[in-house]
Amino acid sequence: MGDCIPRKAKSLKEQCIDYLEERIISGDFPSGHRLPSERALADMLRVSRPVVHESVVELSNRGLITILPRRGCIVNDFRTTGSSELLSSLFRYAGGSLRPDILSGMAEMRLLFETEMARLAALRRSSEGIVRLKAALRQEVKAAESLDWRGKVIAEADYAFHHAIALAGENIVYQMLMNSFRTLFLNVLSRFYGKRFDLRPILDKHRALLANIVEGKGEDAAWEMKGLLTMNKAV
After folding, report:
1. How much is the pLDDT for 112?
2. What is the pLDDT of residues 144-198, one digit of tens each?
3. What pLDDT is attached to residue 88?
4. Exposed, middle or buried by CB within 10 Å (0-12, 13-18, 19+), for 62?
C-alpha cells in the first residue's frame, strides 16, 4: 500500500476563525455588534491573545468585521462589505440556522442557475449522464420509501439528483458551484426533510424533470425545475 499523507488538523487560529465566523453568519453576533475584547475571547476559547488577534485580522480581511483602534471590533453588514471568501464560507456553513435573508438569497440564486442547468442537461445529455440521473432518482425513491429514513438520508439523495443534472449539463462552472453548495444544501435539506411529510409531489417533479431531460426538451426541463424550486424554497 502506498504512502498516505496525514490530514492536517486545523490550527488554533483556524478554529478560532471558524467559531467567530459561524457566530456572525448565524446572526448570534449581529451587524453593529461589538465583539468581546481579545482578552475575553482568549479566555472564552482557551487560546492565546496573539491567536485571537490574528483571527480577527483575518475576519477583517474577509469583510466581516471592522477593527477600530482602542474601540474594539464591530461586526459589519456583510451585504455591503463581504468578500468572495465570505461567500465560500456561506457555502460551507453547516451549523445552526441561517438568517432568513441569506436563505431567501440562496433560494433565488438556485432558481437562477438551476433552471439553466436543467435546460443544458436536456440539450447536452449523454447516455452516461442519463444513466447517472436514473440511478440517482432510483436511490432517492429508495430513500423515500424506507420506513426508517432520516432527513440526512433523503437530503443526500436529493443533492445527488441535482448534482447529476449539473454533470449532465456539461457546464463546469455549474458543476463546481454545485460542489461548493453541497454542505449548505445538505444542512438546509436535512432540516426540511427531517419534518417527515409526503414526498410524492417532490418525487413526481423529479420524474417529470428527468423525462424532459431524457427527451431533450430543454425549455420544458427548465420549466419543471422552476416549478420544483418554487413549490417549496427548500427543495
Report:
1. 92
2. 887 555 678 888 999 999 999 999 999 999 998 898 888 888 888 887 887 777 8
3. 67
4. buried
Q: 125, 213 in Cβ contact below 8 A?
A: yes
Cα(101)–Cα(91) distance, rounded to whole angstroms? 15
| Residue 26 pLDDT class (50, 70, 90 cuts) | confident
C-alpha cell at 158: 436529493
- What's the predicted TM-score (pTM) here? 0.71
Residue 179 Rama label (left phi>0; alpha psi -120 to 50; beta): alpha
Torsion sign, CA atoms 61, 63, 65, 71: positive
The C-alpha cell at 164 is 447529476
Number of other CB atoms surrounding residue 172 within 10 Å: 10
75: closest CA among 59, 51, 95?
Answer: 59
CB 127 within 8 A of CB 168: no
Torsion angle, alpha carbons of 89, 90, 94, 99, to 10: 140
pLDDT of residue 103: 76
Which residue blocks in the chain are alpha helix, DSSP H?
Answer: 12-25, 38-45, 49-61, 78-81, 84-92, 100-124, 127-145, 151-169, 172-193, 200-214, 218-231
